[in-house]
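Data's thin. Show one?
=====
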Amino acid sequence: MLGAPLLVTALLAGACGDGGANDGGAAGTTSPPAVGSTTATPSPSASSGGRVTIPTSAFADLPPELRKTDAQPMEVTDALPGLCDQEFRSGGRSVTASAAMMSAYKQPKDPPENVPYGTLHQTVFAFEGTGAADYLRRVRGAVADCRSFQASGGTVTVRSEPMAGTGDEALLVTVSRPATSLDGSPAEGRTTSQILVIRVADAVTVVHDQGWEGTSNDPGLADDVARSAVRGLDSWQR
């Protein structure tokens, strides 16, 4: 689906400058045109009055050996992860568009009948001016201040590190939390998930990589996911 000419059009209405109050605006509620459509009517941005359209090709397209399901549009507010606060919200008048998609992935040698290994919730933001770099700087500081927090089941720990050579700049966030069973009851051990924040030119993507139904993701796939995300943004921004 990601290779199709379907376009995701996003309208950010009533954006405010508090750095996080408005993510996506109508992006999560605007329905994409049917598959096979080659054009979409772009929506004006609230900040510049220009027209910005985020194509599905701007999203990560995993290699076939990792792809379990085609990506599907979802609400931006549901796609963005939350830690101590709303670290990954965009807000601000420099955002011109946003859109989100969800897909499932597998391990290369998984048989077809297996359930997915994990899911990717990916958000793409388009910015104007210095908005993209400003967003990365704000997220980097907010995540650094959120080393741990309390959630149901116990303490969640957060670790962040730069991803050298990924896009124009990138941040990898690893989240560890107490494990739970499918019914939500406590289980032994801990589970991990990862968040990739990548800037390419005037666009930023946030990819939330989670294991299937509360299990851990595979940290070894972070580079593959990052490369796919960068290819998508490069195809749109370069």
About this structure: The longest strand covers residues 186-200. The radius of gyration is 17 Å.
